[in-house]
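Protein modeling request. Please complete all fields; requests missing the sequence field cannot be processed.
Requester role: graduate student
Desired output: 3D structure, token encoding
Chains: 1
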Amino acid sequence: MSLPQSKLDGKLISLRWMRSDDADGSYFDWMAGNLFTEYLENYRDPITREKLREYIEIQNNNSNTYFFGICKKNSSVLIGTVKLSLIDWVARTSAIGIILGPAEVRGKGNGRDALQTVCHFAFHHLNLYKLYAGISSNNLASQGSFEGAGFKQEAIRPNQLWLDGAYQDQILYAIYNEN
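Delivered output (179 residues):
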């Protein structure tokens, strides 16, 4: 897997590969600190640095996944992650997911910019046709980021997610490469 350059620049952020040593920094603090894991169905067990390091390595060694760290533009400080996964190279589709860590970077357009930047990469570098995401109906901030990046709601899956002790609807979003 290669990037057209060492990082991908958006208007507000830059994307770079996630590294196993990211598990030793702020990424671990967000994930272990349950800052937003009420929206993530994959994080039910306690998170350790070793598990997080292993997770990063697995993602980076998967030929159907692109796992990026999000940094503020002209900074190396990690503020989040964005991932293309479950890439189907024949159908040219991929799942997409995003996490913004520190509360002070949320609600300022960083998520929207990261999504737009990775969509551009997916459509113009990987030649994908469709990116899709499933978002908890309670996660209004994520819905706003995806809608702001041009994603459209395609469906609602009632009571699909068990999060924070209750069933929640999952809203399915997608964006298409129309070029």
